[in-house]
């Protein structure tokens, strides 16, 4: 199939031959690894007759035999994607020998080297870079693996499943044999051969089996993995308690590697992780790092069932495993936060903070994706390069779709659906229809309309209008939905949207909800199911006009359009019983103020913050009855990416001017209040990762940022002292960020001191790179950001071949600093084109992620678009550009 040809979901067909067993033998060598693959291929009775199809990419074929004999003339054909073999028997034994060069594999897909060790990454199509194979998720087989390597440089030899045998060999080499007793697709294959040490722990599963847990890292990092191990144990226990799912192997292994395109990979029993999501201790990891380690460890462990035991039929069904597993890791995180709380109120607040973080990410990353040229349903209908569809839509929006099923079916109904899903499909490769079908069958409900969430792209707009009838004591709520056109989908159909609703009385208390025709008092929150373009509901028995609280808990991934005055938003900020909606009211108020300031900045008018907003903001700041973590979220401004999407057309410069003005104005107006809260929130004693302490540190750092933005000498002195005397990375990095996001000359010395302290720690230096790449320029006298980024690329710690470094520095500039990237002279775009082309030569996956920084270019003003287009066209016209980047840029330009 020629490059750039779309692959269609509707064209799916099973292969004529599948694979029953795979026996792999690796003779590992940095430049000439030899792989012997023995496949027992069997005819697929559910498929039309045809040849054995084997995919291969950049392989040297040494030999191939069919049932022990060389292929007959014309029996073996080379194709654009690999090999085809004509056979007639129902069962055929193939032996294939290939040779590969791991040291030259800079794509980090397939088998590659990192710091002298050998590692693999096979999702989505990396296994075909190791050996010829029907490398599709619907081909599930049992694997046995023999690894042979130099014993001195690679004393540890790991693969999937259970260890069968190890031994010494001549010439200083050794071997290990592994067997995975479970069927798996090739994308879940993994091997590791390296010089590593393990933190080990033995635990009993819910059925009483003893299992071995291991976290493998370089010896120097052993003091940074205890949190990852604790997170693994918590994940194992949670999956047993909440879903009744038990670890099925004798051991479960996590391996950390510094060169990795993704966050982590759920290979069966041998999860390979980016070091970023394994290593954390108080001196090198922030509270957020600890949270991320716990979340990602949980995510990959949960894949053991939602992704491994039941996998995807094809890559169009990617959200089947990823959306579901993101939902599960979000639920896990909320439960862990709640369990660590010291009261029911604190637990509810902790759950709300987790939910707020989920929605912040959705709005900042997925909503813009839905509004751009790469908009696609959570189950796409076509793709050119599957690596481009590991997206916020598939993951985060996919998780929201699963959450809506929980909202509609309830916890018991959802668990019943999950149980049925595993009972029907364990050991199979299935579709999203199979999953939703189990939910429907287990609960006796019709979810056919709900399936539109899987096929329709775009973020729906939910319009809400209320009508108060004082004479009848009734309130009528009318909800209507509209999804804007997206690429390839101009016409949209109504979706099945669960809308969690509450009504707040004049005294701030929730009202019982009774719909017309119902008898007796109802709950104070209920879920309305909008299935039509528009529908009305009338609530009765009310003594005064209520204030509606809609989409409680963010019950659906939509944009809510509702007319609310400043006074009503302030009222909900103060009284809404749903903590998420209380936060969201503040965000909506902030958004309104910021966009008005941006409009004034664009028109050259003076910028003034409304006094009423300042009062509402201060009320949250000084309310010490609220959980500190919640207040920290409530005082944080909406993300720049989300705000840019709310501007029509988007212009980053006046938006940044508005954000700087608002931050400064709040810091100046509430200097005493910020200072008081800052001093009251100091956490005594040794560092511990705990939600209560983390919340205090988060709010304390938030106060410090507002204070330093105001530019007072007192604030700069506070930040400098916190930086110099911090007992943990959260406080040290929080102070550094406050100094960098200011005009303070002290920022220069702090940045240098941070670099000197951590110059040998790659992960910590990523924070240093990212902070400078994303820094705002608070005055014309501040350093030129692009020049700083270019200078930092020359730092010995930076490397274009390391994804983490690219994401930190280049991603921090291209994606997290719009005002500086979209500079008026267009130099940011020329730099972007240069780096995307350079990255693409070695690692197309990383290059395509950087390319996406300009996919939404048409939302900007005509003047900005005119500066962006030449950069896009330059990349598109580059000879030899990869399909990964070509798809992103081509869709942006088309």
From TrEMBL:
Gene Ontology terms for molecular function: alanyl aminopeptidase activity; metallopeptidase activity; zinc ion binding
Residues in Peptidase M1 alanyl aminopeptidase Ig-like fold domain copies: 458-561
Keywords linked to the UniProt accession: Aminopeptidase, Hydrolase, Metal-binding, Metalloprotease, Protease, Zinc
Catalytic reactions of this protein: Release of an N-terminal amino acid, Xaa-|-Yaa- from a peptide, amide or arylamide. Xaa is preferably Ala, but may be most amino acids including Pro (slow action). When a terminal hydrophobic residue is followed by a prolyl residue, the two may be released as an intact Xaa-Pro dipeptide
Residue ranges constituting the Peptidase M1 alanyl aminopeptidase C-terminal domain according to the UniProt record: 566-893
EC number, UniProt record: 3.4.11.2
A Pfam family that the UniProt record links to this protein: Peptidase_M1_N
Record-annotated Peptidase M1 membrane alanine aminopeptidase domain positions: 228-453
Domain Aminopeptidase N-like N-terminal: 95-188
Cofactor: Zn(2+)
UniProt-listed GO biological process terms: proteolysis
Similarity remark: Belongs to the peptidase M1 family.
Protein name as it appears in the record: Aminopeptidase N
Gene source species: Zoogloea ramigera
Name of the coding gene: pepN
């Amino acid at each position: 199939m020629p490059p750039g040809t779309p692959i269609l979901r509707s064209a799916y067909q099973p292969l004529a031959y599948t694979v029953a067993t795979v026996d792999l033998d690796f003779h590992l060598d940095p430049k000439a690894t030899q792989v012997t693959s023995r496949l027992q291929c069997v005819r697929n009775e559910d498929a039309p007759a045809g040849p054995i199809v084997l995919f291969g990419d950049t392989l040297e074929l040494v030999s191939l035999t069919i049932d022990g004999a060389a292929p007959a003339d014309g029996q073996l054909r080379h194709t654009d994607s690999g090999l085809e073999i004509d056979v007639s028997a129902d069962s055929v034994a193939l032996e294939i020998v290939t040779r590969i060069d791991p040291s030259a594999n800079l794509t980090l897909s397939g088998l590659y080297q990192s710091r002298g060790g050998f590692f693999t990454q096979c999702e989505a199509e990396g296994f075909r870079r190791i050996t010829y194979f029907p490398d599709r998720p619907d081909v599930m087989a049992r694997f046995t693996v023999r690894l042979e390597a130099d014993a001195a440089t690679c004393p540890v030899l790991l693969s999937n499943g259970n260890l069968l045998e190890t031994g010494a060999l001549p010439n200083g080499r050794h071997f290990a044999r592994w067997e995975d007793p479970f069927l798996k697709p090739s994308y879940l294959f993994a091997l590791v051969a390296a010089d590593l040490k393990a933190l080990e722990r033995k635990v009993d599963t819910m059925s009483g089996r003893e299992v071995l847990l291991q976290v493998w890292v370089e010896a120097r990092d052993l003091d940074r993995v205890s949190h990852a191990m604790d997170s693994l144990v918590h994940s194992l226990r949670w999956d047993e308690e909440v879903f009744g799912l038990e670890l099925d192997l004798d051991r479960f292994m996590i391996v950390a590697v510094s060169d990795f395109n993704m966050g982590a990979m759920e290979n069966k029993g041998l999860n390979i992780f980016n070091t970023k999501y394994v290593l954390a201790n108080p001196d090198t990891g922030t509270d957020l790092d600890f949270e991320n380690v716990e979340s990602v460890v949980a995510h990959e462990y949960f894949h053991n069932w939602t992704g491994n035991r039941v996998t995807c039929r094809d890559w169009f069904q990617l959200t089947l495993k990823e959306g579901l597993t993101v939902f599960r890791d979000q639920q896990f995180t909320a439960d862990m936060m709640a369990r660590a709380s010291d009261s029911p109120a604190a637990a509810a607040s902790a759950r709300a903070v987790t939910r707020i973080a989920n929605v912040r990410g959705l709005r900042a990353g997925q909503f813009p994706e839905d509004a751009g040229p790469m908009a696609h349903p959570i189950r796409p209908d076509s793709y050119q390069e599957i690596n481009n569809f590991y997206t916020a839509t598939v993951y985060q929006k996919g998780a929201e779709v699963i959450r809506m099923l929980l909202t509609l079916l309830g916890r018991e109904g959802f668990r019943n659906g999950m149980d049925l899903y595993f009972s029907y499909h364990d050991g199979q490769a299935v579709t999203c229809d199979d999953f939703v079908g189990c939910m429907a069958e287990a609960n006796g409900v019709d979810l056919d309309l709900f399936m539109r969430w899987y096929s329709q792209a775009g973020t729906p707009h939910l319009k809400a209008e209320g009508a108060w009838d004082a004479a009848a004591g009734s309130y009528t709520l009318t909800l209507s939905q509209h999804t804007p056109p997206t690429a390839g989908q101009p016409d949209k159909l109504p979706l099945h949207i669960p809308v969690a609703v509450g009504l707040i009385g004049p005294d701030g208390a929730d009202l019982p909800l009774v719909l017309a025709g119902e008898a007796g008092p109802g709950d104070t929150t209920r879920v309305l199911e909008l299935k039509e373009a528009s529908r009305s509901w009338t609530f009765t028995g009310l003594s005064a006009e209520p204030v509606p609280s809609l989409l409680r808990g963010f019950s659906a991934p939509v944009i809510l359009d509702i007319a609310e005055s400043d006074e009503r938003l302030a009222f909900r900020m103060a009284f809404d019983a749903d903590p998420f909606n209380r936060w969201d009211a503040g965000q909506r108020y902030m958004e309104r103020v910021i966009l008005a300031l941006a409009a004034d900045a664009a028109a050259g008018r003076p910028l003034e913050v409304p006094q009423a907003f300042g009062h509402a903001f201060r009320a949250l700041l000084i309310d010490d009855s609220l959980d500190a973590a919640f207040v920290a979220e409530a005082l944080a401004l909406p993300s720049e990416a989300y705000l840019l999407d709310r501007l029509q057309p988007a212009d980053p410069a006046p938006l940044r001017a508005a954000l700087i003005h608002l931050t400064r104005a709040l810091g100046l107006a509430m200097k005493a209040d910020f200072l008081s809260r800052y001093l009251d929130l100091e956490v005594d004693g040794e560092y511990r990762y705990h939600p209560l302490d983390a919340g205090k540190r988060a709010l304390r750092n938030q106060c410090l940022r507002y204070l330093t933005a105001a530019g007072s000498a007192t604030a700069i002195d506070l930040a400098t002292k916190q930086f110099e005397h911090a007992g943990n990375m959260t406080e040290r990095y929080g102070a550094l960020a406050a100094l960098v996001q200011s005009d303070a000359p002290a920022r220069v010395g702090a940045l240098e001191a941070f670099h000197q302290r951590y110059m040998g720690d790659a992960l910590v230096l990523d924070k240093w790179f990212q902070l400078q790449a994303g820094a705002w320029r608070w005055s014309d006298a501040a350093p030129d950001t692009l020049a700083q980024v270019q200078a930092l690329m020359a730092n010995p710690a930076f490397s274009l071949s390391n994804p983490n470094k690219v994401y930190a520095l280049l991603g921090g500039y291209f994606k997290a600093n719009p005002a500086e990237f979209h500079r008026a002279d267009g130099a940011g775009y020329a730099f972007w084109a240069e780096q995307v082309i350079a990255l693409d030569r070695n690692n197309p996956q990383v290059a395509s992620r950087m390319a996406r920084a300009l996919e939404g270019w048409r939302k900007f003003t005509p003047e900005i678009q005119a500066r962006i287009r030449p950069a896009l066209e330059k990349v598109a016209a580059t000879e030899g550009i990869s399909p990964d980047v070509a798809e992103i840029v081509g869709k942006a330009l088309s």
